[in-house]
Design goal:
By secondary structure, the protein is of the alpha/beta class. Helix content is 41%, strand content 19%. The protein has 4 domains: 29-307, TIM Barrel (Alpha-Beta Barrel), CATH 3.20.20.80; 316-559, Spore Coat Polysaccharide Biosynthesis Protein SpsA, Chain A (Alpha-Beta Complex); 591-674, no CATH class; 687-843. α22 crosses α23 (647-674).
């Protein structure tokens, strides 16, 4: 189902609706506060598994008084029960009973008859305002799935889901799963549901984070949870259910269903006498747990921060950085105005916009508006931090809309003392047109990267929060990043300094994707530039081809977590594991390679070569088959049903999938190859320095004398300060490198710098700096092409061609050597100046 920032006009309906991770009733969030009801011993000749109408009426009255709003049944209820539910303001979720489950799996005729019976029953309830939807089954045994095959059973369940949707389009559908079959994921469910009986609150909270990430952009509810008061006592039952409800709602779930309403339980043709999970006894006398539930459920109309208070609510500064974002800024600020949190401020930094941003800001007088000349995203974020008065600084973008409880969930995570930063997911809102709908399905959207279910390696800049003090510890945002990449750089710096980043899957923002193809491609160009800048600063995070190497799992909105890679299931010995996980495997290297810009360029050259040879001319298209197949595979595995897209839409999406890595890759390599610079003036009059150019040897050793005990670290800090002043590109030692500073000095030369401190008596020291020169990738590529050309000409033309090519090679070598020596002279001057300011004396 499409996600969106909800509005009352979209959600006002007689039936419960879903948007993103929550249910809505008449335009307002509807949290499932439910109980399981039955089955009961038949009371009359109809063999109904429900009490008589008067008993049901009394039960529903007690439920209404307790704030319960949803009832889950395990059989199709009589229509009068739905009418009574509507009378008492209750909603009904029906679990479809599989009376002959194993027979259905092995006999297609029986299963088809079962489907016809379901259609008949669903039609009876169609349009009823009390009906929420259906669970197509409940807790399929793991050995059953293992025996018949996961794919076969998933298809059968999926057929039932689609069958119900076709019969009653407004009914919501799900499958009531449980931990032993966590890996079982029929499609398409409208919401995820799990029966979970974890009695340790910490274990439950940790497991809910896992399930929330598994559910992605869809709601998650617990369809069963309870405790037996016979074995544990009423006090323990009441305490646990109170903790359970707090954890469920503080973890951002869409609701919970308590097992069970009453101790009366009839199953397998007999009354169950040795269990007492009910909130009330068989005689409908409320237990202690009933009163706890009543106290917590009756506050459903209050904001979460009042229903389930945090240990404290520190002031939050929400910073929105905008450059020509007027088209969506009003939606953004309206959503921030509606946030349910007691103490926050909104700061908008207008980064030199030329549209009507200022006019929009005047409509929101409570917003702290800051206007500056266009200096880029990094500078704008830093300006927002300086203006912030809150303990916590939160960032979003002007094309985002926040969920009302956004800050509540971010702050809850940050109050966990192990995290200094926190983020959440960003989902695409309902597209405003067909073109935007297609673009929202294209690759390249901002994604979060998780190391565990609750800790992140990267959180997108449109949804991130920090304790303000962390900026003093690890520095502010790097102004080098004008369009994108600043969030990645800052996350990596946080992790490098030994801190942790949290993630809360319920801290949601809706992020508009680009409205036109031009804007989309422009965005990808910006991302390509940012990747190159990140590679300059953090080379150890990148592979040889220039793509980032993530330690964590990338979560993409348009895909199931396990859809793009081969996964494995841990089932336990003989399939008896209590928690049977689905582990995603590593993404296939060749699949990644064929989707890359580098492969496309290699395919183009190989195709050109095949076309020039007469025997292989007919097969020139073969190198392009892998990336084209990869693009088709991408479309086939989208969460959105590709069958619902028109052919023209699929064709456009196919084009975007193919072109996206090319556009991004060209920009990334252009930035990587041609933006290296050492913006330092050549010292003094260059004429006397010409002889020095020819005498400098590599590596070059510079030595400095210290009479006051200063070591190399002082000099390195001053050199870094000088490099920053000159806006030079460099990387610092990550702890795994064989250099202290790596200078991207020129398009043809990189200069690693290494230091040494020699200790002498009377606290005197000699500090040595070793400068070296390494040829860049462009340098190597040019020489490779020149040598290859020389060889081809020698073979094709003969030895006379060497008279032209060898002098060119010699001249190129001489030119590059001169450039290297000139770079050294510039660096010597910079290091000498840094040493002088550090009170060191150069040893000549």
């Amino acid at each position: 189902m499409t996600t969106s920032a909800p509005s009352e006009s979209q959600l006002f309906s007689q039936r419960i609706k879903i948007h993103s991770k929550f249910f809505y009733d008449k335009g307002k969030k509807f949290y499932i506060q439910g109980v399981n009801y039955g089955p009961f011993r038949p009371r009359d000749s109809t063999n109904s598994y429900f009490p008589l109408a008067e008993e049901v009426r009394n039960d529903f009255l007690l439920m209404q008084q307790a704030g319960i709003n949803t009832v889950r049944t395990y059989h199709f209820p009589p229509c009068w029960l739905l009418d009574l539910a509507e009378e008492y303001g209750l909603k009904i979720l029906v679990s479809i009973p599989w009376t002959e489950r194993y027979h259905y799996f092995s006999d297609s005729q029986s299963f088809n008859a079962f489907k016809q019976w379901i259609i008949q029953k669903v039609k009876e309830y169609e349009g009823h305002r009390a009906l929420v939807g259906y669970f197509v089954d409940n807790e399929l045994p793991p050995d059953c799935i293992r025996f018949y095959g996961r794919k076969k059973i998933e298809k059968l369940i999926s057929d039932l889901l689609l069958l119900i949707k076709d019969t009653d389009g407004e009914a919501l559908v799900s499958y009531a799963n449980f931990p032993p079959t966590e890996y079982f994921q029929p499609y398409p469910v409208d919401f995820y549901s799990f029966n979970v009986y974890l009695h340790n609150p910490k274990d439950l909270e940790a497991y809910l984070y896992k399930l929330q990430n598994l559910a992605g952009e869809k709601p998650l509810i617990l369809s069963e949870f309870g405790m037996d008061s016979l074995r544990h006592g009423q006090n323990n039952q009441a305490w646990l259910l109170g903790e359970h409800i707090r954890i469920v709602f503080q973890s951002g779930l869409a609701g919970t269903i308590i097992f069970s309403w009453t101790d009366e339980w009839f199953t397998g043709g007999m009354d169950i006498e040795d269990w007492a999970f009910g909130l009330v006894t068989k005689n409908r006398e409320p237990k202690k747990s009933y009163w706890i539930i009543r106290k917590l459920f009756q506050g459903h109309h209050l904001p979460l921060y009042q229903r389930f208070p945090l240990e404290r609510t520190p002031k939050v500064s929400v910073v929105v950085c905008s450059y020509n974002g007027a088209n969506t800024l009003s939606d953004c600020l309206s959503s921030l105005r509606a946030i349910q949190y007691p103490d926050y401020e909104i700061i908008v930094v207008d980064d030199g916009s030329t549209d009507h941003t200022q006019e929009i800001l005047k409509k929101f007088p409570e917003v702290i508006a800051v206007h500056q000349a266009n200096k880029g995203l990094g500078v704008a974020r830093n300006e927002g931090i300086k203006r912030a008065s809150g303990e916590i600084v939160v960032f979003t973008d002007s094309d985002c809309m926040a969920d009302p409880d956004w800050l509540y969930f971010l702050v809850k995570t940050l109050l966990d003392k192990q995290y200094v930063a926190c983020g959440g997911p960003n989902y695409s809102p309902i597209p405003k047109g067909l073109l935007q709908a297609i673009i929202s399905l294209a690759p390249g959207s901002p994604s979060h990267v998780l190391l565990t279910d609750s800790s992140a390696e990267h959180i997108p800049g449109c949804n991130m929060a920090f304790w303000k003090w962390i900026f003093e510890k690890v520095g502010y945002f790097d102004p080098t990043f004008r369009k994108a990449g600043d969030d990645v750089d800052f996350c990596w710096r946080i992790l490098f300094n030994g801190y942790q980043i949290g993630f809360n899957p319920s801290a949601i923002v809706w992020h508009y994707r680009r409205f036109t193809i031009k804007e989309y491609l422009k965005q990808q160009i910006g991302y390509g530039e940012a990747e190159a800048l990140l590679r300059f600063k953090h080379p150890h995070y990148f592979g040889a081809l220039g793509s980032a190497i993530w330690k964590g799992q990338i979560y993409e909105q348009n895909f199931n977590l396990f859809s793009l890679r081969k996964s494995s299931i841990y089932q336990g010995i003989f399939g008896t594991g209590l928690f049977q996980f689905l582990y995603p495997g590593k993404e296939n290297y060749w699949a990644t390679l064929t989707r890359s810009f580098e492969y496309m360029m290699a395919a183009f050259l190989l195709s050109l070569l095949l076309f020039t040879i007469e025997r292989t001319r007919l097969w020139f298209f073969l190198p392009f088959l892998p990336p084209l197949w990869s693009a088709l595979s991408y479309i086939a595995q989208l969460k959105a049903d590709p069958k619902k897209l028109r052919f023209s839409s699929k064709l456009l999406l196919f084009f975007l999938v193919v072109i996206q890595p090319i556009v991004r890759g060209i920009t990334r390599h252009k930035q990587w190859f041609f933006s290296r610079k050492l913006p330092i003036a050549f010292p003094g009059d260059s004429t006397p320095l010409i002889p020095i150019i020819f005498t400098i040897q590599t590596p070059l050793i510079l030595s400095y004398w210290s009479k006051t005990g200063q070591d190399r670290i002082s000099l390195l800090k001053k050199i870094i300060e000088k490099l920053d002043e000159k806006a030079c590109r460099y990387a610092l030692d990550s702890g795994w490198d064989s250099w202290d500073i790596f200078l991207y000095a020129d398009n043809f030369w990189d200069c690693p710098l290494l230091s040494l401190t020699e200790i002498y008596p009377r606290n005197e020291r000699i500090i040595k700096i070793k400068l070296d020169a390494k040829p860049t990738s462009l340098h190597k590529l040019i020489f490779f092409v020149m040598l290859l050309t020389t060889c081809f000409l020698w073979v094709g033309v003969g030895q006379t061609s060497l008279l032209a090519t060898l002098p060119l090679l010699a001249l190129l070598s001489f030119y590059l050597r001169i450039k290297q020596r000139r770079l050294f002279i510039k660096l010597i001057a910079l290091i000498d100046q840094a040493a002088k300011e550090t009170l060191l004396t150069k040893i000549k």
